Structures are given as C-alpha cells and as structure tokens.
Amino acid sequence: MTKVYDIAVLPGDGIGEEVVREGLKVLDACEEVFGFQTKRENMPYGADHYLATGETMPEEAIDRIRDMNAVLLGAIGDPRIEVGLLEFAIIAGLRFKLDLYVNLRPIKLYDARFCPLKDKGPEQVDMLICRENTEGAYSGIYGHLRKGTPDEVAHQSMVFTRKGVERIIRFAFEEAMKRPRKKLTMIDKANALRAQDLWTRTFEEVSREYPEIETDHAYIDAACMWMVKNPEWFDVAVTPNLFGDIITDLGAMVQGGMGIAASGNIHPGKVSMFEPIHGSAPKYKGQNKANPIATIMAVSMMLDFLGEKEAALKIEDSVRGLIVDGQIRSLSAGVHPTDEIGTMVAERVKG
Ligand code: IPM
Ligand code: MN
Prior knowledge:
Order of helices and strands: EHEHHEHEEEEHEHEHEHEEHHH
Radius of gyration: 20 Å
Distance between the termini: 25 Å
Oligomer: single chain
Bound molecules: 3-isopropylmalic acid, manganese (II) ion
Largest sheet: 10 strands, mixed
C-alpha cells in the first residue's frame, strides 16, 4: 500500500514562497521515484495574512498540525511588522506548542571551495548540533520597567528544567551512537552562568549510561573559536537554545553559507517541523535569486524523519553531486536562479 504523509506547508514571508516551491519540486521528484505520497495543506500564515486579518498563528491551525506528520516552513519576518512579533508567534509558537524540543542542525561541507577556512575540506567539517529548542533564553520571561525613561530596567530570564535539559542531552547521546566517531561535546557557559551547572551535572550523569561515547566539553566562547580553528574536533554537540542559535549561524558559514544550512525542529515520534535556518531575506523576495538548497535539504531531513531514508539520502547525494561536479558554481544568492537549482536537483533525483 502506498504510504501517504500529511504535510502542512507554511511558505511564510520574503523568499519563503520561492524556496518552498523548489523544495516541493524536489519532493514531487522523490514521490515519483520512491513511490510514497504526500497530502499537502498550504497554510497562509505570515506578514500578508497578519496585515489582512490580524491573525498570527491560530490555535486551530496548531491543532490541525498536531494530527499531521510534518511541517515544512519557508521563512518568517517582514520589515512592515514589529521586530519579532511574527517570528515569536509562528516559529517559536510552533516550537513551543508542539513541544519540538530538538533543533537538529547538521553542519556538513560538501566541497572545500565553499569553506571560508584555510585548508579545511569535507573531512574536517561534518558535525551535528543538537540545540535545545523549548527553554533557555527563549522561554519568554522578560519585562521592562520605566520603559523609555533614563531609569529603564529590562530583564530576560534563562529557564532550564531538569526534564528539558535531560531529554535533549539523551537525544544527543543517541545521535552520537549512530555515528562512526561516537563523540559528543557539551557546549555551555557554566563558568559564568552558574544556573547552567544543571547542564554540566545532567550531562555527566547521562554520560555514564553511554560508555561507548567519547565526551568533551567547551564553553560557548571557546567553542566558537574551535569551530573556526579546528572544526574537525566536533562530531555531535549539544547546547542550550541561545548558544545553539548563534553557533549554527557560524556553522552555516563554515559549511558554505546560509544558502545551504537546514534544520529540523523535532519531537521524536510526534509531528515535527523542518525549515532552512536562514531568514526571509526581504531584499531578494520575488527576484528568483535566493538559493533554495537549504529548504531542499530541509525536505531531505523531513523525509529522513518520516522514515523515507532512501529518498532523504538521494536528495543529499544529488545536492552533493551537483556541487562536486561544479554544476552548482556558487551557494550565494543571485548566482543561479532559484528555480534553476530546484530543477537541477529534481532532475538529478529522477536521473
Ligand atoms: C533560527 C532563527 C529564530 C531563532 C528566530 C527567527 C526567532 O534565528 O531559527 O535560528 O532565534 O531561533
Ligand atoms: Mn538563528
């Protein structure tokens, strides 16, 4: 019997629609080749919808998504709207309300010519960052006092729970077990942020259950340094929400830029969301200039999550092939038209 997956598609703002269109083109190719199907529901949430209706991400839509298999999201953010309003309601809304506690961000270099670091190639850049995705600095506990006056006070709390910390650390150990190097680095800042010693202790305790895994530790400032100096030191890493946000932009550059970096917001066994890690890049909207590879790789991660491992690998191999053969000359916006890249990958998947 043909497998059918229910997918919510949220193209969102800016370049979101263009890159999602190409991601779906590649998904169509996979369905043709691998014989599964997707039933897609397009959801209009984002800036235009908000301006027209005042609605950001309705509860009723979140509830419908709960019964689906996955979400493919393009990008959220628009200069016409207050900074953070839509990002928080839609991206963080989905992450928190669906309890997508893993933000999985692979950093993989396919060809040395796309790495800004000297003498680093695919062998040195192949890591998996497990970013905690529902707590920390993103918990939404903040406030202002005497706003707009010279005596203004502002605060924002980082909140960590034992359960929240433990589940992402366990997930990271399990990911490390699946990889040949079996190394896991804990990245925190427990020397300055003493609340993070909850991370240090939990990591130490859980590590006893995984004697096969080589463990390592780095403070986030040093981790940024090592990412640039010796990226080969990293295999799998686990880190709190905000640090994961920051270090994966750095990682995206090391793997060739925002045009290629994808992510999965995952709750194992439940509906999960896949998206490029780049933003909505309003200056490229509607120009057919944005690189859709990050979204195409998000489709690959989505298929891997759904159990369509062969299709997921085929997308990755196709992207790698086009890069290594030189058919994809650059990962920067404006070099290849958006739709040209989508077509190239789809053809290679079918070929
Ligand atoms: C990301 C983004 C988001 C984040 C923003 C848009 C809220 O930067 O997915 O990395 O900070 O998590
Ligand atoms: Mn980010």
